[in-house]
Amino acid sequence: MPSTSIRRRTVTAAPRPLHRRLPRVSLVAVSALLLGTACGETRSPSADSATGGATSPAAASDTLQAAVITQAVLNDSDDPAIWINPAAPEQSLVVGTDKGDSTGGLYVFRLDGTIDSARTRRPLMRPNNVDIVDGFVMGRDTVSIAVTTERGKQALRVYRLPDMTPIDGGGIPVFDGDVTRAPMGVAVHRRASDGAVFAIVGGKAGPTDGYLWQYRLVANATGVVQGTKVRAFGRYSGTKEIEAIAVDRTLGFVYYSDETVGVRQYRADPDAPGANEELALFGTAGFVSDHEGIGIYPTSDSTGYLLISDQQGQRLRVFRREGSAGAPYAHQLLAVIPVSARETDGLEVTATPLGPRFPEGLLVMMSTDRTFHFFDWRDIKARIARRDTVVTR
Hints:
Blueprint: H1 27-35, E1 41-42, E2 68-69, E3 77-83, E4 93-98, E5 104-109, E6 121-124, E7 127-138, E8 141-150, E9 155-161, E10 165-166, E11 172-173, E12 183-190, E13 197-203, E14 209-219, E15 225-235, E16 242-248, E17 253-258, E18 262-267, E19 280-282, E20 291-298, E21 304-310, E22 315-320, E23 333-338, E24 347-350, E25 362-367, E26 371-376, H2 377-385
Antiparallel strand pairs: 1-2, 2-26, 3-4, 4-5, 5-6, 7-8, 8-9, 9-10, 9-11, 12-13, 13-14, 14-15, 16-17, 17-18, 18-19, 20-21, 21-22, 22-23, 24-25, 25-26
């Protein structure tokens, strides 16, 4: 991994409105970005506040600071995914979307926050969310793939990791070409029983039932990934949209944010008994407005945490992954943590140790200043343990 200089920056931007406004970027800054020459920013948990004046219910001194802030993308950062390097975890990568309409892309970041220009893929037409899954079968091999929604093409895009080679033949159409659905959220699931891989896709709009469409992904004889719809499922309140989706691959559940309403839970296996029956609706109180990014941090095969972004609150809300006796789908709120990342749409977390910088795992949150914030899980764990962060409402 190349070495980088470390510098700190004090941000003095004015508060952001709900509808995010992209900052102006000079030609010099854009040129530096495209060449990947600027250094990633690294901050310790004790660094000065990076909230940039954004409204937060907690004092700035209580805001959890990122350990690393990435280089900025060109247009509008949105959603991250984490690829674990099995041979050298400290060389793992973060893939993040940039939602530029015609100059967007999938940016690849090293764990020091610098952009890996050789693996970054652009331009793309408004890629929205991204997810990664291991064990995808291609001929006699199994590979890791990154799957993103490309809204401008009404399609899923699929890339082989770690080289980020496109393997989708130009894209997999979704929602039968209905442009009003505008694919946004995506989560990828590998079924434990047979290794089948599925992509669950949400859009900008949809019906009050059957909002999510699930596709089975298979590589054909020439190595091109194709998708076949296997079900439509999921309730929708009709109040805003559904973007954030996450799959608990060990327990076989899918969670998605019905924005401004709550988080809904279903079974991820389309062939499971009762697959289209809603199991839970939780997190219905306490959010400032939008329920957004979802991440799952396991502490065992059946225990751990569900992390939900309280977007306009600049907060991370932590729920119990497991339920309780007689209430297996009751997810108790454990903590509310103000964070340096602003107006987070997408987040991802891993419990895998990623070297000395992130020895107990990594949380990545998108920030509206075109960056992604990397948090050391040890800092999150310490906040969960602080009883004064617990909110009971």
